[in-house]
Amino acid sequence: MRVQLFATCLVDTFFPETGEAVVKLLRHYGVDIGYPKEQTCCGKPPNSAGYRKEARKAAEHFISVFDGTDPIVIPSGSCASMVKNHYPDLFKDDPKMFRKAEAVARRTFEFSQFLVHVLKAHESGFPNGRGKITYHASCQLTRELGVRTEPIELLNSINGAQFVPMKNADRCCGFGGVFMGKMPEISMALADDKVDSILETKTDIVTGCDHGCLMNIMDATKRRGAGFEVKHLAVVLAEAL
Amino acid sequence: MKRGAGQLINFRDNARRAIENPTLRRAMRHATESFRQKRSDAIVGIPFEEWREQASELRRTVIGDIKGYVDEFAVNATKRGAIVHRVKTAGDARDLIGAILKDNGAKNIVKSKSMVTEEIHLNKHLENLGLRVIETDLGEYIIQIAGETPSHIIVPAIHKSREQIGRLFCEKLSCDFSDDPTVLTNTARKILRQEFLTADAAISGANCYIADTGSIVLFTNEGNGRMVTTLPPLHIVVTSIEKALPSIENLPLLMRLLPRSATGQTLTSYLSIITGARMPGAATGAKQLHIVLLDNGRSEIAKGPYREILKCIKCGACMNVCPVYGMIGGHAYDSTYPGPMGVILSTLLNGIENAHPLLDATTLCGACTEACPVKVPLLKLLYELREMRVDKGYNQTVESLGMAGFGIAAKHAHIFQAGQTSARALWSLAGYLSPLTVNRLPKPTNRTFRRRFS
Amino acid sequence: MKNEEAVRIFMENSAKVAARPIRVNGITHMNEVLGEILANESAIYCPGISELEKSATIDTERRVDAYRDATVAVEESVAGIAETGSVVVTSANGRAVQASLLPAHHIAILSADNIFMSLDEFFAGLGKTLPTNITLITGPSRTADIELTLTIGVHGPEKVSILVV
Fold first, then answer.
1. What is the ipTM, given to two decimal places?
2. Which domains does chain A have, with CATH numbers?
């Protein structure tokens, strides 16, 4: 099987090790990975801020770069939702582009979605885990994509690790893309609440499928001097292989 | 909190002040957590999804023909002796209500909770006319004696702690200090009982009006709504035109969804269905019943792309689940309706030129959309109103320059990469200029994934 | 009895909303129970309009004509709704619906035959010409306006007893 990988801006710019973990995992299941070097950003930031024209430019570029028929794997719930839910909407008045957007949307999988529904990775499981792991259910992954159980199924299939659910797991961490920059005080207060929920679980690791949220949680973790690690689900799973 | 008409809502500063208020933070956390729990308990074991789908369809039908339902209601309510007034603007409504009260020589007026009267700033107008207006819902009463405005559409004093209310009562009502809700409630009960029995007129809102019977419906818990609608000889109902239900047979659906979504109750203590004025020889009902149906821009909204906000049944569920509202409370929104539905409705009612900063009051998390019992596509409307803000030029210049640059970079990987490199180079400067944002991010890597992939 | 299931659910749901439902077997039993409940009341209002109200034994010494002066109101409710545990009062037949509101204790007499299973059943039977006031009463008066702390008995009755005959 061959897939195309869209790494996302945050992974590319700030968290390349998450990208490497995704590659390691996919190759472990015998997946051949294409990484179109012309890829940039999915257009999520302008789209959320109301800049439809700029978002459309990014979407057009994405659609032309990710052509073909291979599944597209994205290690981010919000970027995957951008492609799957918002691309068709961006081109609703342009029948030709709309069809292309829909085709790209159909081929797109959020990373945990792909692991569970296509690779059935939770069935074979992961042999080498350790410690307690809790999970933050990011907003667009949960509510726009409807991916609620997949990450938990994967975490539950790690041998040696213990999944501990946190209170209000699907409550927003305060990242919100542009929100983090425009309303930093509220953003930080929400991230503090999230850290409280995480601390209550006495976990070793908090994981999630969106680096935006994880970045916001990391900052609050540092500010609070909390002892747990913050890692993308791909990193947690790759380490347990 | 005082803002003249046509003035920009300074949401950013309001929110910052709210965040720095620990009493408010504690009260909001307690209240919204408790509301969320009650609501989620209340929708277990019922076909919630099926009901909200039905309610959504029903409300969509209504907002598709508001004028038709207003007409039908007016005919039926008039037949039963009510006097129905259709008013265009907030000012018209204020003038009309003031005139009705003056014409009848009313001096003491008891009110039960009505957000539409907040929307038209009615109390201030009536006080200026020399009338004495007493709010009788406990939460509204607290707010009134504190000289504030509601911070939640269901629980107006949600932002206040019991200590604050105790001190307020002590000071304004000259009673002994207590922070026991039962004692405080009793104090208010005694004072307000006299008001009910001696009032010349009553003003209430309505949760909905029923077109085929000419009735108005009130969901209440305390009993003040029943008092004001049955004791004084003159009763003025103030509601807005979109609150129609086509038929009395639709009422059970609203009864099942509204209290569960609002307070987590199966049903409120009281549901009053009021049809017309008192009949000759009868012992119940106001002798004179006026029903004021306010438009205030709703007919226009109903014609436009954001019309689905008018499906809203004002349950408050969206604000109870909203992470932003839960952090800052309702006053920061500086408009009658706070929270997600409030951001949308206020933007449309007050005009984007005044309300556009409210569009930053969301992380786009979508919790509101999931909670809404009538499936108002709140998240979609928030996205669309942000687009409208950009289209109309109410966005920040620096943001639109940044986005334009982004549009170019997104099309060309080499420019995009150059952006990444310069971000790294300029990181310290950026952190200096915008510490609360940039310094919260990790430093960009010097070996991007793009370079590492092989 | 055909309505047995509705009565059972009604009793269960009205108890859940903090009303006090009591099942009585006929008029004699009703008056026994009423006697006990009314023992500590000083001013009793009972309009005596319906047959059930007429057959209620009310101590004439303590009976008052004005509901405003009463500590307790004893009235027949026209209907009960099992789904919500509500009793229904209306303005039909010259009744004052506020009589069940002002006194601190409301005793509703409800004929088991008048209990509807669901809200839909009740509303479907109403027709299009409604009495001036229909009020569904679901438990006592309550508020949670102070720190969302439940307080029973605000402006309306703090006690609601329901005698299901």
1. 0.97
2. 2-116 (no CATH), 123-239 (3.40.50.1860)
